[in-house]
Amino acid sequence: MKDMVTLGRTGITVNKNGFGALPVQRVSKEEAIRLVHKAYDGGVRFFDTARAYSDSEEKLGAAFDGMREKVYIATKTAALTVEGFWKDLETSLAILKTDYIDIYQFHNPAFCPKPGDGSGLYEAMLEAKAQGKIRHIGITNHRLTVAMEAIESGLYETLQFPFCYLATKKDIEVEEACSKAGMGFIAMKALSGGLITDSRAAYAYLAQYPNVLPIWGVQRETEMDEFLSYVENPPVYTKEIEAFIEKEKKQLSGDFCRGCGYCMPCPAGIEINNCARMSLMIRRAPSAAWLDEAGQARMNKIDGCIGCNKCKAKCPYGLDTPNLLKKNLKDYREVLAGKTVV
Ligand code: SF4
Ligand code: SF4
């Protein structure tokens, strides 16, 4: 039987396999359309994109041309001005080839937009809703404080927040507060930016939360096939999965980089979102791809860090990013020199 979820007051009810459309930026338009259609044919009905995901909206627009009403589309604006808000919304509507967005979300703002705060952003959301251009108002965030403020404000119908089996007690409190407030909870980073590779465990963990809709940002078609098989046969949380997750938590506990990229760009050109978690990547994924010449050139850039601390200031997880980079570089060089990877 399908696992269904209703996103709080929005009434949007779909199975627990949302489609995160960030990775379709990396494939051709034809391939993206094929993948999106494959997801739709497999039962996926909720698609999440963003103005900031380059041509992701355009690809969804092309995929759903002529069948818009059969799916739910959520997108996002990172605009900080009213003018920017309307420009983003009109652009999204045009390239998604639609006259409405199901959930329009503020994209990870550093503050929680509210009426009368002087930004005019929330008022613009209300106006867009009154005009029928958006159906529901949502917010996405990586910061616990902004997420909690959004829940407490009563102004938002959905929250999109990182949530996976590595969730901390505080993350779980956000989900609980969201449910209590009748807000839909959309889980991003449910595979923790590629660190979680067991989709069955990832799904089963989130299946325990009836109010949570994960949007899987799949990178490979084999992963998509796995999630599509879960539409009809959802994995359940067993003792074995619980034991596996406990083991994973021990390996991935504490201050690790989630690869979100919010600290970028780096003035020294360091690819922080991969380099600051290289020690984990080379131990968890096939390591050869990270250790080749291109990988080494990427890591060697860490030597050029100018210590501006801009990354540290922007990291929503409070990481000491420059030091984390140095630690990862040291370990990487040791691995290249022959240290056994355990
Ligand atoms: S501290 Fe180093 S890594 Fe961080 S943004 Fe500045 S130059 Fe880049
Ligand atoms: S250092 Fe922080 S902001 Fe940068 S990619 Fe990692 S988790 Fe994200």
From TrEMBL:
Q: Name one GO molecular function term.
A: metal ion binding
Give start and end of each 4Fe-4S ferredoxin-type domain: 295-327
InterPro entries noted in UniProt: 4Fe4S_Fe-S-bd, 4Fe4S_Fe_S_CS, AKR, AKR2_Oxidoreductase, NAD(P)_OxRdtase_dom_sf, NADP_OxRdtase_dom
PROSITE patterns recorded: 4FE4S_FER_1 (PS00198), 4FE4S_FER_2 (PS51379)
Record keywords, A-Z: Iron, Iron-sulfur, Metal-binding
Protein name per its UniProtKB record:
Aldo/keto reductase
This protein's species is Anthropogastromicrobium aceti
